[in-house]
Amino acid sequence: MAAPTITADVAGHLAADLAHGTLLRLATAGSVDDGKSTLVGRLLHDTKNVLSDQLAAVERVSRERGLTAADLALLTDGLRAEREQGITIDVAYRYFATARRSYILADCPGHVQYTRNTVTGSSTADVVVLLTDARKGVLEQTRRHLAVAALLRVPHVIVAVNKIDLVDFSRQVYESVSADIRQVAAGLGVEHVLTIPTSALTGDNIVERSANTPWYDGPSLLDLLETLPVDAAGDEPGFRFPVQLAVRPQRAAVDPALVDYRGYAGQVAAGRVAVGDEIVVQPSGRRSRVVGIDLGGRRLAEARAPQSVTLRLADEIDIARGDTIVSPDLAVEPVKELSAVVCWLSDQPLAPRGRYLVKHGSASVQAIVTAVSSRLDLDSLSDVPASGLGLNDIGRVHLRLASALPVTDYAASRPGGAFLLVDPASGGTLAAGMVAS
Question: In terms of C-beta density within 10 A (0-12 exposed, 13-18 middle, 19 or more buried), how is residue 85 classed?
């Protein structure tokens, strides 16, 4: 499902908050019926980010279902199929704000067959809020979503032990589930995980601290979200710019000012660049200097992630879509062989000698899987030998590329180490991959 359209005013606020590090990208995850959509709806409702006509529509549908109170999950279950089935089957995006910061929220599905959507929603998140039912504790899907968060190196992980009201707000139950979560998280390499006892249905510890959990002395979910540190956009070390298009205006014949114009358009993936900065074009290794930065007819002194701009360089270099412009400190030797951890997202299994396309930045190159070395066992939290991967499996593979790519370890750079495996026949995405030496 496409993200909803936002107004220019809202977009301006989001851009400003992103630049100053006060925009938080938030994703929710968890097993089916753990209350993700209800929690998101409660968060939107209690922070007064729901329009009156939206609330009226939710109340009407709730009455039609025979409910005595508004089902706040309907605020995020936007697809007709979701409303009819009462489940989330796609990533529902919402934008909201409080007095302290703005949020882009991705409500991810819980069913195991939609794990691909959870990977999508979590891939750019600053924080993942993972829900688990206090009555059920840690389930396989809880482990899988923690593994995805660890794999994608999401900076912050919060686990809401939800439906605490259904276990009479038991401190013992909460602490037992919390201990299990911390054990699993530690086994997967999630260094810091925070837990909160919540009831999304009644609002306990969502926006305000609840009197029903006097034994809990931590913050509410909103208090925590408003105080989590977030790196300001563009403050990443180095500069990375995948080229989308070489720009040579067709109006050159009638506009003398454009006769010699040559620019390279794309989105700043990491860091910032200023006029006068030295750059390296990869994979060619050619060097030049930025002499101009253009944005919608305006000339800028600098650009930073995630702005989309056109760069002009001092030298005429053969640059095309698929090349990457980086600062000299990010320049690496392009490689034709790489090891990676992948989350397999297709019903079509992965097998050795399979031929795919690797999409890295704006580049797409042919590749062959030379080996599948292991698969993550979600019960033991250890790697086990594997000869292939199936839907939702996480495993380590080795790839041989037809053309060299300037990749880096995902641990060092998310944009430099992330890639997709694509079916060359259908164009469908088969796997999300992270380079891991």
Answer: exposed
